[in-house]
Amino acid sequence: MILIKSIKQALFATLFTLPITVMADGIASLKAFYTDTKTMRADFSQVVTDKQGRKVQEVQGVMQLKRPNKFRWDYNKPFEQQIISDGKQIWLYDTELAQVTVRGISKALGSSPAALLAGGESLEKNFKLMDTARKDNLEWVSALPLEPDSGFEKIFLGFSDSQLQKMELTDSFGHNTSIIFSNLAQNNSISDGIFVFKVPKGVDLIGE
């Protein structure tokens, strides 16, 4: 009787853990998102913590992307910023500093998190991808940048039904950034004009 009970317990455990193993394919979810998502708009909530786990920033905003290589992140107050790529250049506008930094996209994108979301090149060219198990209902993948000077040590993305739900980043200074996406809209029409940046008057321009 003890043996039969043990076998039943083992079968029960197998039946309930097998679907989780099969479904936990973050790489497949990332690739599906990468190939099937032509445009995306979402609200986001971002929290940054330091090495000791202390919160150093919390901000909300809106992100939009259009493949290949066009994206826009609008951060609300109190850390109001805009990060905009028109496919050729990336603009970082800090309203508090009244300063704009611009770089060519070939130099700035590479193995950055933005390349995972809006990039036009093969994922494996810039990242080492691995499935990652976590105690939630999302399918997680870790993406390790292959470029040593990317500025990021680890990047994690969590999906549900191939829709991006969370993103976690660890930069080279040990800061951790957690981003939660909501109100997602995929493959709707987004005008190219959204990704055009014009330098405001009286703002310093740094870069190319």
Radius of gyration in whole Å, from Cα? 20 Å
Shape: globular
Indicate the proportion of strand residues.
35-45%
Spatial order of strands in the largest sheet: 7-8-9-10-11-1-2-3-4-5-6-12
Question: How do the strands and helices of this protein lay out in sequence?
Answer:
Elements: H1 2-23, H2 26-36, E1 39-49, E2 55-66, E3 70-75, E4 81-86, E5 89-94, E6 99-104, H3 105-108, H4 113-118, H5 123-126, E7 127-132, E8 139-145, E9 152-160, E10 163-171, E11 176-186, E12 204-207
Parallel strand pairs: 6-12
Antiparallel strand pairs: 1-2, 1-11, 2-3, 3-4, 4-5, 5-6, 7-8, 8-9, 9-10, 10-11
Keywords:
alpha+beta; 208 residues; single chain; disordered N terminus; 5 helices; 12 strands; twelve-stranded mixed sheet
Q: What does it look like?
A:
With 208 residues, the protein is of the alpha+beta class. It contains 5 helices and 12 strands. It has helices at residues 2-23, 26-36, 105-108, 113-118, 123-126; strands at 39-49, 55-66, 70-75, 81-86, 89-94, 99-104, 127-132, 139-145, 152-160, 163-171, 176-186, 204-207. A 12-stranded mixed β-sheet has the order 7-8-9-10-11-1-2-3-4-5-6-12. A hairpin with a 5-residue loop joins β1 and β2.
